[in-house]
Amino acid sequence: MNRLALAAALLCSAAPLAAEVHRIEPGEGAAARLQEALILAAPGDVIEIGEGRIALNDGLSLDVDGVTVQGQGMDKTILDFTDQQGAGEGLLVTSDNVTLRGFAIENPKGDGIKSKGADNIIYDSLRVEWTGGPKPTNGAYGIYPVESTGVLVQRSKVVGASDAGIYVGQSRDITVRGNLVEFNVAGIEIENSRNALVEKNIATRNTGGLLVFDLPGLPVMGGGNVILRGNVVKDNDTPNFAPPGNIVASVRRGTGALVMANDGVLIENNSFEGNATAHVMVIAYMQPFDDPRYNPHARNVIIGPNAFGRGGDDPQLEGKEALLAAFGGALPPVLWDGLAQSPESALKIAPGVTGWTLNLAQPGQSIAEARPGPLMLTPVETWEFPEVGAPAALEARLK
Predict the structure, then answer these.
(1) Which domain holds residue 55?
(2) Residue 341: pLDDT above 50?
(3) Is 34 strand, coil or helix?
(4) Are both 190 and 258 inside the same structural domain?
(5) Is 166 exposed, middle or buried, given 0-12, 13-18 or 19+ CB atoms closer than 10 A?
(6) Burial letters for 336-375: b for 16+ Cβ neighbours within 10 Å, e otherwise?
(7) Are residues 322 and 268 in the same domain?
(8) What whole-number distance in Å separates Cα of residue 141 and Cα of residue 170?
(9) How far out from the chain centre does Cα 317 lie?
């Protein structure tokens, strides 16, 4: 081997060794040492936080690419923001290729962990919790990636968010897998995002379990290509505690999965149980808007085979007594508002899926103007749907 080749080989072998591990142990001055490590880290560095509780009175931030922030486990390494000043996030990330894993954030005044414009980000084995229970004064979002390409959120737990436990917005190429979300207004919300896989999560005791929205007036529009697969959506019975004016303040207690104004959503092989309003709702956006880019209708929604247990037995809808009487004491599992640019483009159901429709004529009508009736759609045996989810390289980073 000539000298030039030898030097190149040594450089390649030495590159991983250049990364530093910054160890932060709880104790006096830990909060300042942690923020200092986040500021001074170099790409490839690991910030390792020891077991214990660190009290913080200000939010943390990270703006260095390729950093890993690693705790000892979601119940062992706890960042406590109970005495946080102001209303900012617990942790804000604005850099790419970041991995966050194995720690908890408790009682932030604002959102738990927010990443903005952070591509190829991993949230793994985290916990965000407001320990005082569901309250409108809790932060809006627990885990909150926005404006990103490449998002993986897995094996995490969020409790008590006054908007959504896990929210992915204005992003693409997303996997949300194996998480537990409970006692939030919305368990998991995918908003104005494309190519998202939401699978094997447990959404329970929220107001609504799984939400897929597309909203007007945002920088990134045209949400769609979302798969909800293999999730347990159970007993979403918490009264809505969102602050007034929030879009999720309109979510009815007892909603399993809610699709609004999205283009291309596949719901299959989930287990729905104990969602008192509806296991699945497919609706148009009902509020006035002036965004010419926006389509308020739900389109190309496919309800495949799912396990539908008890549900629809206490719908939070006007005239529920008459509805229950008409349908024999419980509403069918799928509710469609009946709004579509064309019936064949709105909703498809697999054999054995039953539902009902409000038969509304146009967006903006109140439920008082509905003409409820059985969902009369011809079932389809097969369908095509694109591959979706986070890049495989994100999965590989955790091995």
Answers:
(1) 18-129
(2) yes
(3) helix
(4) yes
(5) buried
(6) bbbbbeeeeebbbbbeebbbbbbebeebebeeeebebeeb
(7) yes
(8) 15
(9) 25
